[in-house]
Amino acid sequence: MTTEKLEKTEKPVLRSPLGILATATATHGTGRDEDIPLPRLPGFVESAFSPLAYEVSRQCLTERPGDGSRTAVALASLMGDTTTADLASARVVSGQVHNPLLFMQATANSVLGYVSREFSVTGQMFSLSTLDDPVTELLAMVDLLLEDPELDRVLVLGVELGGGERVAAAHRELAAGSDRPAPPLPPASGLAAAVLLGRPGTETPVSVRSAEAPVSDRRAEAPESDQSRPGSIQGLFDLAAAHRRLLRDGGSHLLVTEPDARRGPAAFVLSTDTEAQAPLRAPTDAHAGRNETETHAHQ
Amino acid sequence: MSGEVTVTGFGVRTAFGTGAGALRRGVFTGTPSFTATTRFDTGPYRTPMAAAAPDGPDAVEDWALRHALAQCGAEAVDMAGLPSDTKGGGTAGGGTAVLLGIAGDSTSITRHWRAADTADATGTATGTAADSAAERPADAVPARTADAVPARLTELLAGRLGLTGPRLTFTNACVASAAAIIHACRLISSGRIDAAVCAGGYLVEEETFGKFDSGRALSRDGMVRPFSADRSGLLLGDGVAAVVLESAEHARRRGARPLVTVVGWGAATDAYHIAQPHPEGVGLARAARQAMRLAGDPDGAALGYVNAHGTGTKYNDGAETRGLRAAFPERAESIPVSSTKSTTGHLLEAAGVVEFVITMLALMDGVLPPTAGFGRPDPECDLDYVPNQPREADLRRALTINAAFGGANTALVLERP
Which of A75, A27, A79 is nearest to A190 (CA)? Predict the structure, then answer.
């Protein structure tokens, strides 16, 4: 068991702090207490992907309505809507007629378009696939997008579906050479999490900034779970849980993301401390340690 | 913008073949590349036509997309003279980024379900990874089910090119590779990175072909006739391309010659429909205006050409025309607009980067690629579409536009050095 430290030579992920406007999570068919029935979306069938993506987007955009023309959206999903892809493919090879609805919803663009219409979001929208930790990739994208003077807010979300043998096989191949586990989600289940971010201000009692702090060896003691699976959105759930706790209790929270093959773990400080909302300075180890209330490694 | 973004290399493959010469002989002469494809049984579908390279069924074997990406990526890097990071090259920004616009290799999904279907019929065990016996290139890695994962293709490309910078995969359908280029421009102009390889790829295969057929989106007469009154839909095409983007300062330090400069970019959403464009092209106009503002030319005074999205569908072309009129209310009628999908077909996730390369060539050669298959004028499409014949033009700036499901729109402005 070793103590992992952030490489001091690595650039911080965030140039400037971000303010968290809202967070939301939703699960379906996982067996968890918080599982929800899927909301009905006209034109979307069979798959949990789009309903879950819509649900977490709806929660954030309803809780904190804003100027849709100055809002961007980025959705991360390692494999996309695998349920729809498998249904459509199975029909092709068995000689059945294609279902045009499966064609319409095959890309994440469709549900993003639905969200954009419902909430009048006309800023840019992206969907992404990453083997790295989506928290790091999405927060970095938000930091970059918010340098655009035409944008004030970015909604980021992650969606992950359970799947059958093909999805499991793909994960086994991605994990080859490591002990990364296959996804634990049953078929037809799904997870989604969303975070609405802007720059820190009076409307964002919780801010997030890059930390250049040693990662506590508590990280290495974290219980094994599916946290190290490529593209896992568990980190977004951890971020949302930390946000809720900080809104209730105040203080700060160190969120450590999964390292990837090219770089060490990134770390972010979530804080209600107004000091943390000042322009980012490279934090000292002591500073980060003083504010630290808990270290998570996406457990 | 703190840093100017230049393009120093590219590699491209379409149904016309590999390289700029193939594009010049095909796209720039207005010669459509549509044939009845033999890659799969097209019997169940309304048309057999696609712009698929005549390289037999192996063209969609498990290694094909990876191989084409690696080939185009290597050509782009070679042209740019960009050293690999793993061979001591690297950049001050911590390695060259690799950004891909791609949906993953759908053939691996088809193969999985075909194996399952066969197993059901014969009672044999189901295989997951593809067991293709097709002849592979010597450097092809074994077939992988995981090639359906878009991010894996980015990792493979970065590994093949020896590039160690940030990696990100854009999956947002027909704007995916344009979005990758825009993201690279943002990263470079903000000083976060020095250089990026942006790529995209789609090779015609049955999975997607069937979906578009089910959506009744495919042309009925075997041609793509953008902006023409007799247009009846799109046809799919092979497209893979890669471009090297780098800061002007980085290129200058290396002694690399900029081919073009990217001076503006924009992206916006229609907020209208999950599959249809806004009838007035609202999002497209917004993206174009953003790009032109960033380029310092909000009225498009220096704009000499627009490479349109121009799918040849009833919904798109009228909306795009109105969007261009809204973006350039004073100049729309005097700016030549063409759709090169009339010759290449619709390249889906690769459309952005291949059409970026075509737009580059238009600037470099001073030739506008025509809209092929243009027949009767449509009253709702009333701009100059460069019908059927190429046109010489002394261009300084050009705009390339893409749109996608969900109402996503992108715009990029290129300038000749």
Answer: A27
